[in-house]
User: What shape does this take?
Amino acid sequence: MAYSPAPTSILIKIINMKDDETAPPARWLTADEATAQLGVSRPTLYAYVSRNRIGTLAAPDDPRRSLYDAVDVDRLAKRKRSGRSRRAVAASTISWGEPILVSAITRIENGRLEYRGRDAIALAESATLEDVAALLWQVDALPASRSRAAWPRALAPAGAAESCIAAMADLAMAGAWRGRVDSVLPDAMRILDRMAWSAAGLAGTDVQPSARPIHERLASVWGAGADAADLIRRALVLTADHELNASTYATRVVASTRAPLGACILAGLAALVGPLHGGMTNEVRHLLADPAVAADPAASIAIRLARGERIPAFGHPLYPNGDPRALSILQRLPPSPVAQRLVEAMQGMTGIAPNIDFALLVLEQQLSLPTGAAFATFAVGRTVGWIAHALEQWRDGTLIRPRAVYPTDVRGE
Assistant: This one.
């Protein structure tokens, strides 16, 4: 996940700095200088960094302090002053731009996450994933389960993503849209149950429906107690939806073709496995397992930042002041010395807080859940949101088909 700021690599700049003692003030800016040139606040500056739009370097005299790439800052400042053509702006909206679809499911604004107008962080205090499903799907209650069979004990394998994809492929043709939500609800519940079943490590066995809420079933399968079950419940609720992220957009594109519900969810899952989305939890696992990080997080992070690397699972473009979902989970977990020192080092050097991916991996480790449980939790929770978006797109009835702009026609990019 290395990041090379345009137009030259950060590593070349570091080498040049060693031969030119005047380089730091000439080529790198302090946070105050960068914010003044851009005319933005520090949280906005950190958001630019988290989006890979501004390169950073640990200050030679103080590794806890960051310097900011003057070339990147100048480029952004010029763009703000000159503006861009209407076509260039339209072309950029697909990448962290303005909303491109109207949706009444989730709103993210001013650091607040809402599910159909209700604060998601507050909902996570007591709601189950099934409660959130009823809210997002706009139904009074979910269909009653056909059985009260208990799930057997099993361990989620590291390949939880592969198990989920295989299970969803079997249900790809389930859930044809017939103009009414109630007609597709039984298939929606079957898909949600199958996702939880396979994510928990029970793929290859017959799905046993259960009246118990999903968080209790997962906790039982993973050998976790009641306290852990409640934390799993919280994580499921907080990952249920997050507006038009990559996997949800993929789901809506497929839904816009009137494909069956199973195919829509399979599309979302295929996007989720990427290391820049739900697969980020594996990147965090590797980071925390690095002996250098465990021995001295501050020094290790300073070296990584100096090399131009992006630290996985820190920062989120929609939450410049910190991801509230991560805070809601992390503040309730048993302390993790390495993770805590890593967070302190990152915030001390960059001001950037951890996001939901970091919190899910720490949850997996601090609750002694099987390897892969972080991704499994994300996939199960987000299935509820994918189904809600598929339903909304079906009701909308339009085909999502953006136009491509040939590069020579895009001015100012």
